[in-house]
Automatic annotation (TrEMBL):
Enzyme Commission number(s) from the entry: 1.2.1.3
InterPro entries named among the record's database cross-references: Ald_DH/histidinol_DH (IPR016161), Ald_DH_C (IPR016163), Ald_DH_CS_GLU (IPR029510), Ald_DH_N (IPR016162), Aldehyde_DH_dom (IPR015590), LUC3-like (IPR044086)
Classification lineage: Eukaryota, Fungi, Dikarya, Ascomycota, Pezizomycotina
Organism in which the protein naturally occurs: Sporothrix eucalyptigena
Enzyme class (EC, first level): oxidoreductase
Protein name: aldehyde dehydrogenase (NAD(+))
Chain ranges of the Aldehyde dehydrogenase domain: 34-497
Amino acid sequence: MATETTTSAGAAPALLDFTRFYNIINGKLTTTAKTRHSINPSTLEANPEVPVSTEADVDRAVDAARKAYSTWRRTSYAERRAALEAYADGIAANVEGLATMLTREQGRPLALTRMEVATTAERLKETAALELPDEVIADDKDSGGQTVVKRYTPLGVACGIVPWNFPVGLAALKLSAAVLTGNTFIMKPSPFTPCANLKMVELAQQFFPPGVIQCLSGDDSLGPWLTEHPGIDKVSFTGSVATGKRIMQSCSKTLKRVTLELGGNDAAIVFPDVKDVAATAATLAQACFFNTSQICIAVKRVYVHASIYAAFRAAFVAAANGFVYGDGLLSTDPAPFMGPLTTEMQYNHVQTLLDDVRATKLAIVRGTDGRDPLATATDTAAAGKGYFVRPVVVDNPPDTARVVAEEAFGPIVPLLQWTDEEDVIRRANDTRLGLGASVWSADLAHAAEVARRLEAGNVWVNTHMMSHPSAPFGGHKWSGIGVEGGIDGLKQYCDIQVLYLAN
Ligand code: NAD
């Protein structure tokens, strides 16, 4: 039997309670008859119970979103901006609680989940500061007595389908662009990381009218119910290529607008003239193994010029072996940099890649302590529990090896040698994916030339993974359709309307 509790709209940002979790439908905390839980990937203990939504819950949320849309779309941009700014303050006031929850369900060490939540609060403010004014394309003087104005009108009800790797930050990107442009929004968290997402939407009820921002948690049936629903106008999805294709197919039936932020297989090309080989290797190791390599724009293939390969490899492996890993909620000294893989499925996927490395007899670079990098962690405070995998560096495998050709989404990284510039550009581009890439060289002009030839939505020189609040983020080729972030990200939640105003 479902129950509903009213939330405290209008009160000062309260600290969230992380013991009970609800769907948020029409401003109310709502329970479901059935519940489920995710698993703490560090300890394999159960996380708190969360709702399992039914199709009737989806209908109720969509009805509430449609009703709320009829008034929310008419609020002023300034009013929506103010609500978003206040919400950002609410998130900032709850960094500790949200980050702790995130570590329990996602696995990333606490210092790094704190960073995700704090950055989310900043990004919400930065998004709120964006402008999307009407544009006068022609005024009556130069168009025969007619003024032509381009406007951006909201789409209606938007749905954000969120993955488990950066659930708070990625959900906030979708939510903020949707509601700032006058849409209402329904969030669907990943079943692996529902708790922080449910709480961030519970918090939003203090700043937005009922029905403007809602959240439904559930099992594998929930996503398809949402993408099929005729009352939803837009789906913004972040996740795997395979699911992205299914979502596009499902959305086509009702011509929903779709944004897809999908997987990547980012290449880094290291030139022989980098200023400091060891420092570059250490920086790239971070870009490979941060979040236990579960980042769409983690570096996943490192092409190193043959003349510096040996020195680079030594420094890269030293850095990788130096990363402390373990349960991110335990206060070890030093604190861990890497947590476990977030899901059993991901852990098993990485094991199949490791099996492939063994079966095809690819060379693995061992740390100086000679420990077996293919073994799972047994020397952490987690005492053998959890989905831990040590960083594994594969030494110059062929480009056809699975670990090069596929997105591992786990800490198994190939170092590859190159000698010919044209050839390495071809190799970097030889993938269906095109999310990110980077070029590392002291010759900035030449590096920028190479960068322009890489087929990816984000290309960096002498850095990787950097982002900017005004910059759009999206993938080329099979890495996605559309963008998030910046003004272009706002436009993804709008139709264009052209007004022709004759005298
Ligand atoms: P996933 O595709 O398995 O799931 C993502 C979300 O989609 C989850 O909420 C899931 O429940 C939902 N879902 C699954 N099947 C669905 C269906 N048929 N209809 C509707 N919803 C459905 O992805 P994941 O494993 O959670 O995330 C990892 C992937 O996401 C990696 O490939 C990674 O590169 C990618 N990713 C991309 C970006 C980006 O911005 N481009 C960012 C983060 C992650």
